Amino acid sequence: MLLRVLVVLFGALWATWAPLSAEEGCAALPGRQVKVAAIAIGFGGNHDEKLRLALEHLETAGQEGVDIACLPEEFAGTGAEPIPGPTTEAVARLAAKYKMYVICPIREQAADGRQYNTAVLLDRQGKVAGYYRKVFVFWGEGLNLSQEGVKVFELDFGRIAVLTCFDLNFDELWAEAERKGAEIVFWPSAYGGGLPLSGYAMIHNYYVVAVGNGDFIDIFGNKLQQVSSPRKQQFIATLDLDLTIVHRDFNGEKIGKLLREHQGEIELLEHVGNTEAWYVLRSLKAGVRVRELCRQQGIETLREYRHRSRRQINEARQNDTKI
């Protein structure tokens, strides 16, 4: 009897003290937060050495409670292998161990004999959830070109896209990622990228995770400063995918009503969006999501407003009618 009581008490205490999983931890925060690791260990090199280094980094990322980690372009060398294959299977074991997504870029040996520069997405169970083949292959890579274009992946925390290195130079890819609803674009690369990445993030209002140098760029095109580095060449940041931009057009009364009804639960960020004629809203309370409240109130996000406006204005142009 005493043993049974002790077991029950220990279980109750453990439920109180046990660390939260990555999913539970982010759910306990305001908005819709995701913890991201950029593992900037560089392109290429000796396969076995680089894979060993990558696995050490993924152990660290998992211990830090990361939701998704991204490795660099062809991080373990340029020897082609299938999917699944030795590299993806080794990485998948860490993804499953820590219940985190991992973007694992490799040189893919496809079944039809073609070879691609491919970023493989592994899910929280270590299963292959998708892949992106580089659209704009750099001169001299000696690889086949993707015929599949930009892909968006629906994960449990939101939508992501992956674009790779030389893809930076072709704005249509970045616009397509936005059209398909990407909230984060991961960019595994052999170099840093710099200003164009900030421009894409600002124009399309998604986060960009630039793995070449381990940079995180917010939806306004600014490099995040709240970044931790638990080990050399690894950078971790928490991104709030519920941070919401609403255009001022037609929305003044609706936003005022929203703020009054949810005082203390959401806030209007006064220091951003004024010149651009935007309202920028953020959740202050766990479980409160601005996007959901906007849907309930019939308030379009900026992205939704742009998409609807494009569609309706183009229809009017096609029909030769006035707006």
In short:
Helix content is about 35%, strand content about 25%. By secondary structure, it is of the alpha/beta class. The strands form 3 sheets. A 7-stranded mixed sheet has the order 5-4-3-2-1-12-11.
Q: What is the radius of gyration?
A: 22 Å
Percentage of residues assigned to helices: 25-40%
* CATH architecture descriptor text of the largest domain: 4-Layer Sandwich
Biggest β-sheet: strands ordered side by side in the sheet = 5-4-3-2-1-12-11
Percent strand equals 15-25%
Number of domains: 2
Distance between the amino and carboxyl termini: 78 Å
On the 0 to 100 scale, the average pLDDT is 92
Write the element-wise H/E pattern from the N-terminal end onward: HHEHEHEEEEEHEHEEEEEHEEHH
Task: Predict the CATH topology of the largest domain.
Answer: Nitrilase/N-carbamoyl-D-aminoacid amidohydrolase
Plain-language structure description:
- This protein has 323 residues and is α/β, with parallel strands linked by helices.
- It folds into 2 domains: 20-240, Nitrilase/N-carbamoyl-D-aminoacid amidohydrolase, CATH 3.60.110.10; 244-319.
- The chain has 9 helices and 15 strands.
- It has a 7-stranded mixed beta sheet with strand order 5-4-3-2-1-12-11. A 5-stranded mixed beta sheet has the order 6-7-8-9-10, covered by helices on one side.
- Helix 4 (86-98) links the parallel strand 2 and strand 3.
- Helix 3 (47-63) packs parallel to helix 4.
- The N and C termini lie far apart (78 Å).
